[in-house]
Design a protein that fits this description.
383 residues; Heat Shock Protein 90; 3 domains; 4-stranded antiparallel sheet; His_kinase_dom; histidine kinase; ATP-binding; HATPase_C_sf
């Protein structure tokens, strides 16, 4: 069966790539705007410097009114004009404090000199001055704009992505719950019929040993139907010992696997208890064991072990199967992921949901190596 999760992953990747492309385009346009304004301010200051040179030379034939108008037109760009000895000759658009104005201007001059905004003014053959300027308030604000725009767009993309994933997850949950309830409902009718047939066969004198074996299978079907009926509704939690849960689940699996598979259980002497749902927890262990058998192609060993500390218990299910690549450690729990030719790829998804949503625990791939095997770990609260 083709992995339908990979198709959804491709859609996510395309969405993110298109979003990043749009972000890149907007950032390029914004940065280009800031660069163009910076060049415009540079041109404006060169004209201003030329007007200043004309005023200082005292031999200009140009219209003095026009020159003064050019000088006075600068109302936003901070300017300091200094001579070759760094003596300040002119300042413009700087808010000079009343306290220690000389110190302030000296610091500002050093600050402007450390930047790249510098224009030489040739007054005559022997005299030159230097015009230092800072970016205008407008240009500074615009220089922050691309980063603000980036943050806003990334936030928008994140919200859109989370909303998309949330709606998909909600839709998937509805499908899951509906499918589970319908499966339980559909199983109910033939199970009731089989129970009636067993009673009838017993009245007709059929071998009781044969009827007992049939009764076990019908009871098993009832357990499966009960498990499906609990999906989507809050299961009833009861205090029980996890040791017994593991024994029951592994004993059931042991009777139904070939002699080529060794299923071993390692339990501590101390009983470890907590609030659990017995049918669902047994389902988890059985699912992990079935996956392990499939991964080993029906031949190998499975170790189910239990450990505990003060607050939690840890269940490890280790097999000697094909192993899982590290990049697939999280993907294996997604709906539709399967390496088998048959199957829906829902087993581990159900396991994850039972452990994390219903029991508030954790399940993850503890370790795996291709060709050597995999260990799944379940963490549950104990009480």
């Amino acid at each position: 069966m083709q992995n339908i999760y990979d198709a959804r992953q491709k859609v996510k990747i395309v969405f993110l790539l298109v979003s990043m492309l749009l972000v890149g385009i907007f950032l390029y346009i914004s940065n280009q705007l800031v660069a163009d304004l910076s060049v415009e301010e540079r041109n404006k200051m060169e004209i201003w410097a030329e007007a200043t040179r004309e005023v200082a030379s005292n031999d200009t034939d140009m219209d003095m009114g026009l020159i003064l108008k050019i000088i006075q037109s600068n109302t936003s760009i901070p300017v300091i004009v200094a001579d070759e000895q760094d003596s300040i000759r002119q300042i413009l658009n700087l808010k000079i404090p009343e306290k220690s104005p000389d110190i302030y201007l000296r610091k500002k001059l050093e600050e402007f000199k450390s930047g790249s905004n510098k224009i030489e003014i040739y007054i005559d053959e022997h005299t030159r001055q230097y015009l230092y300027y800072d970016d205008s308030i407008l240009l500074k604000r615009l220089s922050y704009f691309p980063y603000i725009q980036l943050a806003v767009m990334l936030l928008f993309i994140l919200i859109a992505y989370l909303a998309l994933m949330s709606s998909k997850k909600a839709e998937q949950n509805k499908v899951w719950v509906g499918l589970s309830k319908e499966t339980a409902h559909q199983l109910g009718t033939p199970i009731s019929s089989l129970l009636a047939w067993l009673d009838l066969l017993e009245l007709n004198g059929v071998d009781k040993d044969l009827l007992n074996d049939m009764g076990k299978d019908v009871k098993r079907l009832s357990v499966i139907a009960e498990r499906f009926s609990k999906i989507g509704s809050k299961p009833e939690m009861k205090f029980m010992y996890i040791n017994e849960v593991l024994v029951n689940a592994t004993d059931y699996m042991r009777r139904r696997i070939s002699n080529k598979v060794q299923l071993m259980t390692h339990l501590p002497e101390e009983p470890i208890g907590g609030m659990y749902c017995l049918p669902l927890l047994e389902w988890v262990i059985e699912n992990l064991c079935k996956n392990a058998i499939d991964a080993m192609d029906g031949e190998g060993s499975i170790d189910v072990s239990l450990q505990a500390d003060k607050d939690k218990c840890y269940i490890d299910v280790r097999d000697t199967g094909k192993g899982i690549p590290r990049k697939r450690f999280k993907t294996v729990f997604n709906p539709g992921y399967t390496t088998k030719k048959r199957g829906w790829g829902l087993g581990l998804t159900l396991v994850k949901r039972i452990i994390e949503e219903y029991h508030e625990g954790r399940i993850y791939v503890k370790e795996s190596e291709p060709g050597k095997g995999t260990t799944f770990r379940i963490e549950l609260k104990r009480s």
